[in-house]
Structure formats: C-alpha cells, structure tokens
Amino acid sequence: MKECSPTLVRKEKRYALHIAYEGDVKLTQAEFSKQRVCAARFRINTFRSLFRDGRFTGKLKQAQRQSGIGAKPNFWRQMNGLQTHIVHDTAHQIIAFTQKHSADVIIMEYLGKMRLPKGTWGAKRLRAKLQFWAKRRIQTKVTEMAHFLGMRVSMVNPANTSALAFDGSGWVKRNTKRDVAERIGCWLPSFGCNRRLSL
C-alpha cells in the first residue's frame, strides 16, 4: 500500500492526523457457482430513534424561538455527527455479518432518491430528512470496506426482491406476519447461491 499525504483534522478541541493509503485490491476469484452470497435478515441497532422522537429538532426549534432563525451550527454539528456515527456503525455491522458467514459477494438494492409528499416543508421536511436512512452513504462505506477485504459488491433492481425465492426457483407466498415464506412456483433454474443479503 502506498502512503498518501496526511491530513490534519480538528474535532472540537482535539486534533487528529488522518493518513490515507492507496493500492491495488484483489477481489475474490471464486467461480460464480461457488460464490456465497448472504441473504439473511437481521436487526441492526442504531441511534436512529433519536431522530425519530424529535429530540434534536425540538431543541433546534426552541433555540430558534429564543434567538430567531439562524444557522445554529452547534445543533447541526451534533446531528451531522450522529448521522455519521449511524452510517459507520451500520456498515461495520454489515461487514461483520458477512465475515461471520464467509460471504464472497454482498448484494445491495439500488434505491432511488427520497421523495417527500407534496406540501412537506419547514420543520416537517427537516424531520423527514433526518428520519430517512442515509442509504447512499451506507452503501458507499460498505463498498469501501468490502473491497478492502476482497469481497465483491453488486447492485440489483429492488423490484420483487422480497417476492421471489433467493435461488431463482420462483415466487413465494408469505404469511400474515410476512416472516415465513413458502415457494409456490418454479420458473428459473437455480443460480447456485447459498445465501443473499438484502439491504
């Protein structure tokens, strides 16, 4: 790995020296039929609920009432810092899960931009943006970490990813709780994938 120029970063009253390294990374060369692709659903615990309960937006609104509408950099620094922590923590949990199951490929759904309903503006628009999962940042972080470990990352169309069986054997039927699936048809040959991870 080649060492790049260091960067001095200030975090509140502390300083840190960030050194980046660049080099060629060899991804897994396993045959397609022998690649393990994770497809399990698991819960990722994050601090996203802090945005949902309106704690930060409430403090910001109270500060604006007292001193008028302004930049309020301290509040935004806290919210942006928490959002960054959620992104990094989520990516680390995903990579840890794939390493635990010795996955060769990580499959992620290609999701479009966030669309807010008409008439959403002001504080309501702010809360919606904070509650929205930063999927693009998480996907970028996971891709960087996966490539460093030699794992491949593939983006797929999200259409029918929950309605079709993981091995391409056809459609599935789910119960009322949508936690158990049963195959109801067969229309494609098996791709030889063991598991797949849907994000």
UniProtKB/TrEMBL annotation:
Keyword DNA-binding applies: yes
Protein name: IS200/IS605 family accessory protein TnpB-related protein
Keyword DNA-binding among record annotations: yes
Keywords: DNA-binding
GO MF annotations, alphabetized: DNA binding
Domain of life of the organism encoding this protein: Bacteria
